[in-house]
Amino acid sequence: MGNIRVSRWWMSCALFSVASTQAPGQIAVNDVTAVSGAEFLHTPAFLMIPGIQDWMPSGIAVGDFNRDGWQDMFWLGGGGVPDKLYINNGDGTFAEQAQAWGVAALHGGCGACAGDYDGDGWIDIYVTSFGTAQTNQGELGKNRLYHNNGNGTFTNVAEQAGVNYTSYILSAGYGGAFGDYDLDGDLDLCVTAWYASAQGNRLYRNDGDGTFTDVTGTAITFPNPLWGFQSCFADMNEDGWPELLVSADFGTSQFYRNNGNGTFTNITQASGTGKDEHGMGQCVGDFNNDGHLDWYVTSIFQDNSSPRLPNTGNKLYINQGANVYEEISMAAGVDDGGWGWGAVAVDLDHDTHLDIVEVNGRPGSVEFAGEQEYVFRNNGNGTFAEVTNDCGFTVAAEGKSVVTLDYDGDGDLDLAAGFNSSFNKLYRNESGVLGNWLHLSFNTQNNPRIAPDGFGARVTVTAGGQSFVRFVDSGPGFLGTGEICAHFGLGTIEIADEVKVLWPRGYVTVLHDVPVNQRLTIQAPSLGDLDGDGSVGGADIGELLGRWGPVQSAFDLKADLNNDHIVDAADLGLLLGLWGT
To answer: Between the CA of residue 245 and those of 264, 375, 574, what are the distances in Å?
Structure first.
């Protein structure tokens, strides 16, 4: 069985290589941190105590916080300096406005993630924090949920929302991720905690009224110990329900299948994942263009001469379908990433293949201190080439988080990287000119049952007899999240024959003959527009009646207008009330 799965990976890559639209080009990035005005020195100020390791954090959250069409950046200062908020001026520069926006906190900030949790159209920020007390427990209950007020300010509402604590034992929260796991149209939250005895890994269900309920232990059971670093929601088996992936230290990474009833089942061992002995960061993407999402987990690489750390390295889990994965990192050439932390999947050179960028380092280590970062270019044949020194991503520092964003609006994705006890970095992607592209964002404001900004949508671009898939989220990698979008490098393709958006709950939007090299915002179908034709009418009644009775799958939920998991007369009444809209 294992040989069959391996051959599938190589066969799909070989077939794709024959039909590839462009040979790999030279990836190139340029450090524009200083000229952009977005430079600061991350300064940790915490004791080396259990669960609070001040050499680990350096978080970032990207989002268009003022909704002017340009991506902004929120950075954690580390406790020695206040957090920073860089508002994009739209001309390649940023203005630091944390004080004016109310987020210039001086605290032990660890991780950050961005998403519109209350669906008001403004992107909010969640922050894990060790607080300010220099004690052997940190300061409990100081995680922050910054509600975006829509007027150039944020308000911390974490306590009112019920997400200020992740542990009542030790302040040990690390990475956070938003995602709509129950498909009710609002963003839920998963927060990981590294120090296992604190039992601080938490799943929060969004109640839709500005508050969250801790469903840890009822919706999901985390093992003890679980040395959690970063979580991610993604529909890995294409049934419409997002799975929950957790990268975790000391061999405790977890893969949770979404059961579609508000609960999760741990299938780590059965799926063939969880083989990373020191799971740190992660990223999800279709690395072999076979239409299935794969999972990359960073870890620690050291040769067999060391008795302390075995030669495990990063892991690349290739999706074989049916919730089964094959680990192929060594064969693919991505196992050696040093002491890995954050990672992103991104097509930097627009050759249609997702590359991998990884940051790393470990202070106090002869082998890993001040280590170079890693850029793995996808060769399109089942292997990657390490091109870091050639591409300009050559900073040697303690890299922790790395995220993507198109900060300059030129259509390719740039890189923002957070470094512990060093200067943050913003890299402009200079290699996007090598191929064509599409940059897609999503507007869901007209449908309260679809998560904001398209979270959880599956986007397929078909062109030249090939199909390319992206899953819409903010790309949580390690202590940070990036731009919420679906970005496609398309090589020499000039027209996308079809762009298909499979929204959460089964709504579908299809665009035909889409010219490349443009940024598009795709509008979600409105509530009741079940056939996606732009209005609620007779055809939608047929769609609803065809799904009458208890909801059978995630894709039937579009007909369940009141979200009670039964399509009945109440839904028909709601649809008739929306007639003509």
So the answer is: 11, 23, 36
